[in-house]
Amino acid sequence: MVCFRGISVPLVLSLLLLAGCGSNSSNNSHLPPPPPSQFTHVYVAFPPKSGTNNTHFMNTVMPQAAIEGVTEPNVWSSIEKGTPGPATCSPTGTDVCQMDPSGWTHTYDWTGTDQENLQWFQAQGGTKKVNILLDGINSVAATCLITNDCINVSTPYYVTSPGWVAHSGTAGQDLINGNKDGCTKWVGLIASSMTRSASGLVTVVDNSHGYKDGDLIWVGGTTPSNYNIEVATVTDVQVVTATQTLTVTAANSFPVGMQVRFLKLGNATFLNGQTVTVSDSTSTQFTATFAHADYGPSTETHGVAEPDGVPVQNATANTFQYQSGTRSADSASVPGTVISSQQSWPVPYEAPYKTAWEAFVAAAIIHFNNSPNRSQITYMRVGRSAGGEAFPYCPDTLEALPGESGYTKSGWLQYYTDIDNFIQQQNPMIQILDPLNEAGSPVDNTYGAAEAQIAVSHQNAAGKVNGFGSQGLRASDISNYAQSADGCASDWCAMFNNYYTAGYPLELQQIDLSDPTASLNPQSEVGDLRPLLPFAVQRHMTILELYSFDTLLAYDPNYCVLTAPDTGVCAAGSIEIPPTTLPPADQNPYFQLVGQPGQTGAKGDGSYATVINQTQGAH
Hints:
The chain is an alpha/beta fold. The chain is built from 18 helices and 29 strands.
């Protein structure tokens, strides 16, 4: 038996009965049933590329009839490794050479990516599908500080470089990261140690940091805090007209010569969006030249001074230096996190990123249009931001950007439209899927409705209208739908209901690893897949993307190799979920709960395999 939100039903009940679990009957009463011909395609998102998990996956998951194939990320920085320039390649207009509107050419090397994709195209004698996700910005997980990888490595290095930004004819490429502007998660790499000389020069030990001399970096989370180069809270502002001196009180270690931009000031609003150059600095205040009438001191309660970064000096393989504004020799008791402009989240609708991204998208469409395996590609998803998705990250910070860079909902939807227009102009032969995402705080679900409308107004070269979907399927969709038919994340429930009769592909990807126990993986928003998947099918999902760990749990007979005598721990050779996602002591009970009856060690409580197999529906 499985119990969900107080409703208990046997696992062997029909799909439709399972679909009703957890929903309000008054809402279900007017919901049209799926058409008799509805068929849900099941793909595995981000399958393991190598190692023990890959062996398990290829031997047990790929042979399943219910699993039609995989969705595989194709990472921009792995394909465009060089720097664009005048006549760097020829002929243009190919998958290996594109000219952008500025007249510079971009060179692409697909060798490594094609090799990575090959095992998926060849799986089961070439009978499986391989769906293409174009990934231009990394997304980061809540565990990234544990694994020390809270950086963006999917955007090519040159995109945020001064040379490219200047050539693209804009004032600059705005960046988002935790140290620079306080946005969560994007907080960089953790240093091993930090020492400071009497002149304020800080030496950082950080193995394989990847920084180069001249890279702009931001530093945060260090003890003492006067090592930090990060967003600082402004507490007082004073301007003296006679000397054009601006004095700002803010805990900082900004060195002389650094540029600082002001945002979100509530009293000294004349400074919002202004950039000044630090002329003198202490650990509690800094000065700059600024022309304005006498002003202050004025207490500020929420304004910030955002540094434009300090350059890396004397970089070696494992060390580098930067100049702080505090001149005292000592060592940091807690080394902080360091993030560079190249590792930050670039604002994707700005010209430097957008121009370079479109050139890559054009090359990718040509590449996969001409692929000998094109018949195996069901769809391509082109992201607008992180992870092949479409969410504007940290919108309150984006809104505070000056001028045309300042974020607006209408501006974001225009960018979303521009990308679809560009994709359509490239004449893709493959079905295109567009992502739906909500944004803002509180969450604004109406983005989903607008993005769905944009998607279905575009088509590929064969006249197939774009599909759309959400990469955020989660347990709360069931309870939120019970309260309101448009309550699902990104409004996918309402959008699927509005468009399903037209036959457009409607896709859902689970937001994270499931947790059938509701306790072992407390970070999980997916919860138990057994009620969630039928709920999505009943609401017209025609494409399901499952994470590889969940499919391994469903189908692998040796998901947990038991020790003898049984110690309650999975032995070597088992499927390995990273301990940052699921602690080692929790893996054995987690695996056993969803094992198929008859699998060694399975509790017989019920398997994901049953509901995945049922999810496909009518053929």
